[in-house]
Write a structure and sequence with these properties.
The complex is a heterotrimer of chains A (208), B (124) and C (664). Chain A is an all-alpha fold and 208 residues long. The longest helix of chain A is centred in the C-terminal third of the chain and has 28 residues, at 162-189. Chain A has eight helices and no strands. The radius of gyration of chain B is 20 Å and the shape is elongated. The termini of chain B are far apart. The chains are: A mainly alpha (208), B mainly alpha (124), C mainly alpha (664). Chain A: Keywords: Cell membrane, Membrane, NAD, Quinone, Transmembrane, Transmembrane helix.
């Protein structure tokens, strides 16, 4: 199997690189990556629901560090703000509102677990195999100006991507209305239901 | 930096999220797993954007712009998703996915469900 | 107007009358009676005009082809020779009489409009058969008559007898019509045309390839239509219809069509010696059997029905000995006196309130209640019994004379055996005919017992028609036998001395025998009261008759038979009486031979269908159902299971695509 045809250019330009001579960035990336992966694994396997949310914070934060290491600093801060800041809070609210048990719950995983494991491992093997085979001789040049500084990102976003950016606001509005409609209908059915989640989309809109 | 590192990390994260989506019972945990999958994709986008911005002459930074969009859409998605989960929880008293089996083939071929099930479908 | 135009109008007028009657019957009841009577009357005048113009000369032929119809052309053709001209006059005459009579007979019937229209249509169809020069056009009229007879026999459809009789009439005649149709096609294919003139030309030049087959196939249709053995069983049952319909069917139209058809195509039958012998045997069995059966019937109309079968036997007998002049001569005279007999019988049934001879024989003074019917019926019965100088004598003697001629082998194309068969059977039937005619007369008019019920005066329309018909019954034969050969084949129709003496002598013997038997048995009549009388002085004759037919079976236990010890037939027939009354149980034989096997086969087919074929069908349904039940288990409702399966499939597909794309 040979998917390396996609990267002959990089192969020729960076011939002296090798696995046996890792740079500092690479070592940092690997370590943080391992931590991120581990946190993600704990997130999807732990029996304590609130812990899962907290481990998710770790994983998302680790990803933010990875973005920084890849010189995409704006994305990294957005990641911290939205994911770590609001999404996880939302999820925690959700857990609380659905009266998720505190502590170990023995039935956190469904009976589908082994099938899920098989599918996940199979796809992991397939993906890793393909990716490694395709990009084993490709290097990213991280020297020079940052590829994802706020300035660069802002320039491209508001120069080339301004129309999709505005269209996105319509999407968010629709999500806002949808969330309100869903919640209100539920309230009409069960008269004194908790309505704390009603203002959640609004918060998200602000976070944008 | 070797491009395979972020790519492999992304693939593994994605599959972890996949496992979570398939294996978790609580709907909110499933949503968390979905977030992990989305983040794996984001990492891929960023890594390839950084790589291409160095190798290509002219770049639109499409990878990073797309990542921003993805993050936004993911935020919207989690809002709607949680609203749905809460509605289901209020109707059913549970947010366990494997207990929501209204589409199951029951012993009685006629009549897809009780009135309660229809109400849940309407509100979900 | 040319003769052709007149001839076209003859069948067309009753048809238009029928259509108008059906359309206007409900909206304009005042027009129904004129629409019923006037078209046949006009047809009668026109048919007489056509007959006068044709005058026994060469046949008038006219034809037009509407549209090309494939290999063998079908043309609207007229072929009017002496036979057609005279038979058309008879048909129109009888139909007019029947229509006039019906206005009185069914005057209160709510279904009179449709009845009158159907009678007109029937007349039109028969006239079409008579005038048609093309076999397919003839077939159209032939089949229209079949369906009209179905409706008319079933006129009293409230009674189960009428429903059964109409179905039977339809099915039995159709049973004959299927081979008839095939025979027509075979004939048309052999001759290359359906035109009667060309067919006869082909026969004359010996161009017919399968004469016996064709003749026998056609014979089946004729036997069905003309009620010849073994397809005659529908005719006695058809008595469940109103009496005028019986008169029309029996005297001039439907049953005459078969005889007329053979008369037209006699050369085709003569081409096959076997067909002629079959025809002779058929005629002989029909004649003798119907005579015996008629002697045992209790229903006055069934006596007449069997007598019709017998007289038709005479006609086919005449055809079997190759003398179509005699056959049509008898057809004409029989048409007159049989119409009279039926119409008079209708009057008698109305007056007596019953159709049972046994009940009439216990009534006193019936003849004084209906003097017109008494006298005209006497005339008609004398004609039926072939007593000189009534018309039946001359026509029947012409048949017997032709048979005697054939026994000597003097007739071309006719085997001597056919002559002997017809002669012997004819003489025997002469005896039987006189016997049952005498019995009918004695039982109906010489009854002893209580006074006959008073049903009021008969309507004038009914009695006048009887006298009109009595004239030809009395005088037609004597006046016509000299002039008719000019219209027909030219063969002499004068009675020969030998057969005249034999026939008349036997008839007188039969009459005297019956009288003697009646003298001995009638004394018993007073001792055994019997009979049911439908008394509806205010009702019209049709109502009385319908009731009489409906009550016969409950009153006597049988539709045709009455256990009457005072009946002279008890002495004359002895043990034969019971089977003769039942038509020699031919219906039972048919039931055993055809109906039961067919029902058994149907049962078998039903079993095969329900138990064998349906098993496969059910299995074909059950297998997917089981499969579906198995697959349904996968439908757990758990979304995660679904997504797992989906993603597993995706992985497999992706790997497969990769492997293929990289050529590994």
């Amino acid at each position: 199997m040979n998917l390396a045809a996609a990267a002959p250019l990089a192969d020729a330009a960076h011939a002296p690189h090798g696995f046996l001579s890792p740079t500092g960035v690479e070592i940092a990336f690997l370590l943080v990556g391992l931590a991120t992966l581990g946190a993600a694994l704990v997130t999807v396997t732990t029996r304590q629901l609130v812990h899962a949310a907290l481990w998710l914070v770790v994983a998302l934060g680790g990803l933010a560090v990875e973005y920084l290491l890849l010189t995409a600093e704006f994305i990294a801060w957005v990641q911290v703000l939205i994911y770590v800041g609001s999404v996880v809070v939302l999820l925690l609210f959700g857990l609380m509102l659905t009266r998720a048990p505190i502590g170990r719950s023995p039935d956190a995983d469904s009976g589908n677990r082994w099938a899920a494991l098989a599918v996940a491992i199979a796809s992991a093997v397939a993906l890793v195999w393909v990716v490694v085979d395709a990009f084993r001789t490709t290097w990213i040049d991280l020297d020079g100006p940052a590829a994802g500084s706020t300035r660069v990102t802002g320039a491209s976003l508001f120069r080339h991507w301004v129309l999709p950016f505005e269209a996105l606001s319509v999407l968010l509005l629709a999500a806002l209305v949808g969330a309100i409609v869903l919640s209100r209908k539920a309230k009409a059915d069960t008269a004194p239901g908790p309505s704390a989640d009603l203002d959640v989309p609004g918060e998200k809109e602000g976070a944008r | 930096m070797h491009l395979a590192y972020p790519a492999v990390l992304s693939a593994l994260l994605f599959c972890t999220g996949l496992y979570g989506v398939l294996a978790r019972r609580n709907a909110i945990l499933v949503l968390m797993s979905v977030e992990i999958m989305l983040n794996a994709v984001n990492l891929n986008l960023v890594a390839f954007d950084v790589w291409l911005s160095r190798t290509a002459q002219e770049t639109l930074h499409s990878g990073q712009a797309l990542t921003l969009f993805t993050i936004t859409i993911a935020a919207a998605e989690i809002g709607i998703g949680l609203a749905i989960v809460l509605a289901v929880y209020r109707n059913r008293g549970t947010s366990d996915i494997d207990k929501l089996r209204d589409t199951a083939e029951g012993p009685d071929p006629e009549g897809p469900g009780t009135p309660a099930a229809e109400k849940a479908e309407a509100s979900a | 107007m040319t003769t052709t135009t007149l001839a076209v109008l003859v069948p067309l007028l009753p048809f238009l009358g029928a259509a108008a009657g059906l359309l206007l019957g409900r909206t304009a009841p005042g027009f129904v009676r004129p629409l019923a009577v006037l078209p046949p009357l006009a047809s009668l005048v026109l048919a007489a005009l056509v007959a006068v113009r044709q005058g026994g000369g060469p046949a008038i032929d006219a034809h037009t082809e509407l549209t090309p119809t494939g290999s063998v052309p079908i043309e609207l053709a007229l072929h009017i020779d002496g036979f057609a001209a005279l038979v058309a006059v008879l048909v129109a005459f009888v139909a007019t009489c029947v229509q006039i009579y019906s206005t009185g007979y069914l005057r209160d019937d709510p279904r009179y409009p449709s009845y009158a229209a159907l009678v007109s249509l029937f007349t039109s169809a028969m006239l079409l058969v008579v005038y048609s020069g093309d076999l397919i056009v003839l077939l159209v009229g032939w089949e229209v008559m079949g369906i009209c007879s179905y409706f008319l026999v079933g006129h009293y459809w409230e009674t189960p007898e009428a429903r059964a009789a109409s179905l039977k009439a339809f099915l039995v005649t159709k049973l004959g019509d299927v081979p008839f149709l095939i025979g027509l096609f075979a004939l048309g294919t052999d001759a290359g045309s359906f035109r009667i003139t060309r067919v006869l030309g082909t026969v004359a030049s010996g161009g017919l390839d399968h004469p016996t087959l064709i003749a026998l196939l056609l014979l089946a249709g004729v036997a069905g239509k003309s009620a010849q053995f073994p397809l005659h069983t529908w005719l006695p049952d058809a008595m469940a219809g109103p009496t005028p319909v019986s008169a029309l069917i029996h005297a001039a139209t439907m049953v005459a069509a078969g005889v007329y058809f053979i008369a037209r195509l006699l050369p085709v039958f003569e081409a096959s010696q076997a067909a002629m012998v079959v025809l002779a045997v058929m005629a002989a069995v029909t004649m003798a059997g119907s005579g015996l059966a008629a002697l045992a019937q209790d229903d006055i109309k069934r006596v007449l029905a069997y007598s019709t079968i017998g007289q038709l036997g005479y006609m086919t007998g005449a055809l079997a000995v190759g003398d179509r002049g005699a056959a049509v001569f008898h057809l004409l005279s029989h048409g007159a006196f049989k119409a009279l007999l039926f119409l008079a019988a209708g009057v008698i049934i109305h007056a007596a309130g019953t159709n049972s001879l046994a009940a009439m024989s216990r009534m006193h003074g019936l003849r004084d209640r209906v003097p017109d019917a008494y006298w005209t019926m006497t005339v008609a019965l004398l004609a039926l019994a072939a007593i000189p100088p009534f018309s039946g004598f001359f026509s029947k003697e012409s048949v017997l004379g032709a048979a005697e001629h054939a026994t000597a082998g003097h007739t071309e194309n006719v085997p001597g055996a056919a002559g002997w068969i017809v002669l012997v059977a004819g003489l025997l039937t002469a005896l039987l005919t006189a016997a049952y005619a005498t019995r009918l007369w004695l039982l109906a008019f010489r009854g002893r017992g209580a006074e006959a019920p008073d049903h009021g005066r008969q309507p004038l329309t009914m009695t006048v028609v009887l006298w009109v018909l009595a004239v030809p019954s009395l005088a037609f034969g004597g006046l016509a036998y000299r002039s008719l050969p000019g219209w027909f084949d030219g063969r002499d129709l004068t009675p020969t001395l030998l057969t005249s003496i034999l026939g008349t002598g036997l008839a007188v013997v039969g009459g005297l025998l019956t009288y003697g038997a009646w003298q001995r048995t009638s004394a018993l009549a007073a001792r055994t009261p019997l009979g049911a009388v439908a008394a509806h002085p205010e009702g019209d004759a049709g109502l009385v008759e319908a009731e009489a037919i409906a009550t016969h079976e409950p009153a006597y236990g049988d539709i045709a038979y009455a256990p009457d010890p005072a009946d002279p037939s008890r002495l004359l027939l002895g043990p034969l009486r019971r089977p003769a009354a039942a038509g020699f149980h031919l219906d039972a034989v048919y039931t055993a031979l055809f109906v039961r096997p067919v029902q058994a086969a149907a049962g078998l087919v039903r079993f095969l269908d329900r138990e064998v074929v349906d098993t496969y069908v059910r299995a074909a349904a059950a297998a997917p159902r089981l499969l579906g039940a198995a697959v349904r288990r996968a439908q757990t409702g758990n979304v995660q299971t679904y997504v797992s399966a989906l993603l597993a499939g995706t992985v497999v597909l992706a790997v497969a695509v990769l492997l293929v794309a990289t050529g590994a």
